[in-house]
Here is the input.
Amino acid sequence: MAKIYKYIKYVGFIIIFLLTGCASMRPPIINTYNDSINNYRYFYISPTSDYTSSSGIYGNKYLVYGGVMKSTNPASVISGILFKNGFIQVNEIIPEHKDETMIVNFAETGRRNVNLGYSIEVSIQFISAQSQTPICVCTAEGQGETEADDVRIAIQRALDPLFKTK
Here is the structure.
């Protein structure tokens, strides 16, 4: 009977260690400057390449079993969020609308070990097409099943607070 209590005590310590040792996602950060995205109607987004990743795939060089392959394009995700919030995407900066156009840039800005895996941090920069000065920079991390999920979640987390205050 003493061995059972010792075992339960040991397992309990491991569970407590895992639960308290796991970090959570850092909160999104929005750095604003002397302007507001509310002053703009149009946006031009710099093209980005796809994040393609997989999870759970195993096998040899001839056969591949199971798993999930996912892909996401950050510019597409950002554009979708901006569409939903009433902005109009342009394929080039039109001189007549330069004062109403913002340029949107995306970058992966970090990775860190968290929750028995890792998270990807992204930053989304909004700058004025007219003055080339920053409007705001939104930063957040994301963690999902694959890197593609990490990036999609991070983008959504970065932009959510920006439009909740709109």
